[in-house]
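Table S2 (continued). Query chain:
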Amino acid sequence: MSGQEILKASEDKMSKILASFQEELKTIRTGKANPDIFKRVRVECYGTNMSLQEVAGVTAPDGRSFVIQPFDKTNLKAIEQAIQNSELGLNPTNDGSIIRIVVPPLSEDRRKELVKQVSKITEDKGKVPTRNIRRDSNDQLKKLKGSISDDELSNHQDELEKITSKYINLVDEAFNKKKVELTTV
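Corresponding output:
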């Protein structure tokens, strides 16, 4: 593998980590209704564990509440139970055909707790994996020593550092955006 191929592969991996990290942030509840928070809710129905999106439509009609419309009404109780058992802290109300959830405003303590949680996710799922790719790629580049000049090796390492900085900055931007969402009342 050439130096350019190593750099390209590194950037591709960092891009995937960023996308995964951004998806993870969407599942953190803010004070506004966002259907993405239900991505991790699993519902036990038809003898299997399914995602909420596989068994119901989720909408946020007014930004302060959700309406969950099961595709099969026999799953209504299972959906309600899954939401109650999730870590979202939401209380669904079941009217026999749909589930409604009013999003309560976040308390100041809960906001601070969520910012800490997002900060940990930022480090664990954004920055650390990106740095690990940098380390592995640097190791691969060092193995090229002898087959490429020292100047070329140094240029590749500098380029790798620029790519890493770019993705670490993008992770920080995503964190800061989520932090603003969480702290803005």
